[in-house]
Amino acid sequence: MSRAHLVIDQLRNLVGQSRGNEILVLSCETNAGDVSRSADQAGAVSGAVSDAISAASDPMGTHPVNPGSASTSDTAIPTRQAAVVVHHEPKTDFATMLLLGWSAGDVSPVGDVNLNEEGNGKPRTDVPDANLQEMDLIALATKALSGVLDPLLHERGVCFLQFATDVCSGRDRASQDAVSKDAVSGDAAPASDRHDALDTAWQTGMGLSHIGNLEYLSGAVGEADKSIDVLLRSSGKRDQPALEFRQAESIAQLAQVVDRTYLQTMDCPLMSRFRGATQTLGVYHQSDAYAPELWFSIHSGHRNSDDPSGRGDSDVGPAIGCLLMGKHVSGNPPSDNGAAPDGGDVISELVYMGLVPEVRGAGLGRQIIKQATSLSKSIGAQRMILAVDEANRPARDLYRSVGLQPMMRESVWGKNVAKDV
Q: Are 217 and 400 in contact (CB under 8 A)?
């Protein structure tokens, strides 16, 4: 599924919900000679959003938004319209950017001017500044958009803005970060990197920093459960302590454990610049998949009960990790006891699992995956999904070893709004 389709589905769901979601739609006009700004807020009004949904066709989300509101220019230089769409749920301190880019019909010409006559992707020598000119236009547009968007978010108590995009083709996180820094600082990038810098110009122009690349995995719960049983039997680590899973008593208590698992983490380590454990758990708490009965702290000890909830009496030490699961139910709303509606499907999500640095590398991750598949089976889930940082090789290898397969990839970007206003 393309990113445009994902965003369209998300917008449709938001418009159809009745819990006060707010959608901010901003647009501006710019050209090479000047920049004329007109940023218009369209709260939770379905009209502008419907236009964005119906016109969606570009993976970067370049949709016409309220085109009649933008000011006009008398200059003969072609005028182009940029737009951004942001979702904010009231009473939360974060917002999600859904769309960012040129409106449909104002797509970037770089794909044409940057190719030679054979179309083999080699830069044309007769238009050396084409990409740089395009980046200048994007810089003007993003300056106008962010100049209005950031105060609007600040007024609503938003501290963190996040955005997900397709991963830049052929570039790993380190090189993508390097290109982003060049774009922000204004330092001249090598000619071979200019197109990559153009790919990230919208994000860096809005003040966003690259946090990491995520890989989304999915697999059948039954098959994953069988696979992890085989791995546990064949691991040969008989001296491993049994893990005790105890339901979290409070978010505040669990946040202390999560904070410790963030130390030296390989899972989006740059996120710690923007969000602490308490804030991250608050985001999970707001999710439709939130299931507090599936949130556990992990302890090392000898279990004296077969109770799958982990509430049995045992001699355990302090928490050494955590396991957070979520539950997605399709079809009609679930019943009061959380059961899936008739004809509905349950999908479990491994939202987060982590261990403190002292116990990593001992193979305990297999036991946590076993608990995750057991919990998934207990709620009737047929499939399990999760996201992992592509740079976290040990975690990726573990998930794939139990049969989970990649579904999609995305780059995650973010910024602290309060610092930018």
A: yes
Handedness of CA 289, 295, 411, 208 (dihedral sign): positive
Distance CA 319, CA 90 (A): 34
Hunting for tokens 């609007």 — which residue is that?
Answer: 152
C-alpha angle 175-177-181 in degrees, rounded to nearest 5 = 115
Number of H helices, E strands in the chain: 13, 12
Are 154 and 421 contacting, i.e. CB atoms less than 8 angstroms apart? yes
Contact 62, 141 (CB under 8 A): no
Residue for token pair 């997605």:
328
SS3 329: strand
User: Residue 290: CA atoms inside 13 Å, Cβ hemisphere, count?
Assistant: 11
Cα–Cα distance list, 288 to 66, 162, 273 (Å): 30, 18, 26
- Angle between helices 46-55 and 3-16 in degrees, nearest 10: 160
Residue with tokens 């996201």: 387
Q: Please give the Cα distance from 329 to 327 (Å, whole number).
A: 6
- Counted residue by residue, the chain has a size of 421
What DSSP designation does 311 have?
-
- Nearest by Cα to 321 from 356, 352, 294: 356
Could you tell me the strand order of the sheet in which 94-102 lies? 35-36, 22-30, 80-88, 94-102, 160-165, 405-416, 209-220, 383-389, 346-355, 314-329, 290-303, 243-247
Can you list the pairs that 30-34 forms with residues at least 24 positions away whose Cβ atoms lie under 8 Å? Answer: 30/79, 30/80, 30/82, 30/137, 30/140, 30/141, 30/144, 31/73, 31/75, 31/77, 31/78, 31/79, 31/80, 31/137, 32/77, 32/133, 32/136, 32/137, 33/75, 33/77, 34/73, 34/75
User: Which residues are 200's β-sheet partners?
Assistant: none
Gap between the Cα atoms of 108 and 100, Å rounded: 13
Q: Which residue has the higher pLDDT, 311 or 4?
A: 4
Over residues 252-311, the pLDDT tens digits come to: 889 999 999 999 999 899 998 898 898 888 888 878 899 999 999 999 875 444 444 444
Q: Phi and psi for 225 in degrees, rounded to 5?
A: -65, -40
- What are the tens digits of pLDDT across the range 272-286? 889 889 888 888 887
